[in-house]
Amino acid sequence: MKIITAITGASGIKYGLRLTEFLSNSEIENHLVISEAGEKLIEIESDKEIGYFRDLADKNYMNNDLGAQIASGSYLTDGMVVIPASAKTLGSISNGISNNLITRAADVCLKEGRDLVLVPRETPLNEIHLRNLLKLSKAGATILPASPGFYHQPSEISDLVDFVVGKTLDQLGINNELYDRWE
């Protein structure tokens, strides 16, 4: 299985880091793209260096590399996650603006009918955000807001992060035990 992970400039780098860590400890091939704003937020919100993120992935791409494998529909992947997904990135994807590798790879997933999971972290949402999310949902993307549940009695921030990442993996059909499921 091949998954593309994109980390953009929305607060919530811990979600992208946890997903990348999970994939690095699995048999799943992870293709990682980090936006320029995502790189800045890694410095602000994480105690990890950008190299730590990149070392976890099987393949790394620069966001300006529109000639990368994942920019082509003929390069087969099983899907993509944008986590966290900034409002800017969501707006670009929803309007077919493929001006960087993240938006192009997402466009490829939509046009090829592959899984695309978008994890917006923006709050509150205005009408433009909501319209973009609706357009993306109608186009086939899964919208998975970074809204953790509390029925599993989380005791640490990592429990909340694992809930969102576990739900994200569920949408890709990837087995995980990151959170306690409702019984």
UniProtKB/TrEMBL annotation:
Keyword ATP-binding annotated: no
Membrane spanning residue stretches: none
Domain Flavoprotein: 1-172
Keywords assigned: Flavoprotein, FMN, Prenyltransferase, Transferase
InterPro entries assigned: Flavin_trans-like, Flavoprotein, UbiX-like
Residues that coordinate or bind FMN: 9-11, 35, 86-89, 121
Reaction catalysis annotation: dimethylallyl phosphate + FMNH2 = prenylated FMNH2 + phosphate
Record-listed E.C. numbers: 2.5.1.129
Pfam (any one): Flavoprotein
Record flagged with keyword Nuclease: no
Signal peptide: none
Single GO molecular function: flavin prenyltransferase activity
Functional note: Flavin prenyltransferase that catalyzes the synthesis of the prenylated FMN cofactor (prenyl-FMN) for 4-hydroxy-3-polyprenylbenzoic acid decarboxylase UbiD. The prenyltransferase is metal-independent and links a dimethylallyl moiety from dimethylallyl monophosphate (DMAP) to the flavin N5 and C6 atoms of FMN.
Family: Belongs to the UbiX/PAD1 family.
Protein name (Swiss-Prot/TrEMBL): Flavin prenyltransferase UbiX
